[in-house]
Amino acid sequence: MPEERSPRAPLEGGKKQAIMNAALAVITEKGYHPATIDEIAEKAGVGKGTIYLYFESKLALVSELIDSVTRAHLNEMEKRIAQVQGAKEKLLVLAGVEFDFWRRHAPLAQILASGEMVGMAHELRDQMRAARERYVRLIQSVIEEGQRQGVFAPSIDAALAAAIIFGARLSLFQFAAEHRGAQPDAIRGQALDFFLRALGAAPAREA
What we know:
This protein is an all-alpha fold. It folds into 2 domains: 1-56, Orthogonal Bundle (Arc Repressor Mutant, subunit A), CATH 1.10.10.60; 62-206, Tetracycline Repressor, domain 2, CATH 1.10.357.10. Helix content is 71%, strand content 0%. Helix 1 packs across helix 4.
């Protein structure tokens, strides 16, 4: 008798990644709530039942997808800032990466900003918390670098400032979602100017 497979068993042949890629494509096109498992299965080229072998619900699938995308996003941020010199320049690069993420994955960014994932599995909440802490540490390190360079005010609590920037990032995603006529570059520019002034640096357009 063949061994019964667990709903959480790993997928062979890259099927799991194909399902997650399909979910990303469908949700990016339609949004979280309108997207259906049937559409994701069709996009992935698998049967609907195959998805339920490994993801117990759409919420579980999207929770894991967000975890995967978030980790890839953080890896990209770390890679990009390693290629530039200067704390102010690193913040500019990070802002660019953030808004590129919004352009590519607006529905996922909106889910993160709106709290739609309140019901996600406990282990994924832990992973998201770890990702948040990693993000805040990254921003904090850039601020501390700027303080050593004399670019940012030394009196600023770098950890607190990084946490504020992280929270504001989610609010900016929500603002962009609610004001669809707003230009992402304009939002990014104004947000950058605000944070650079708050950190004690000249705004980007005056640099």
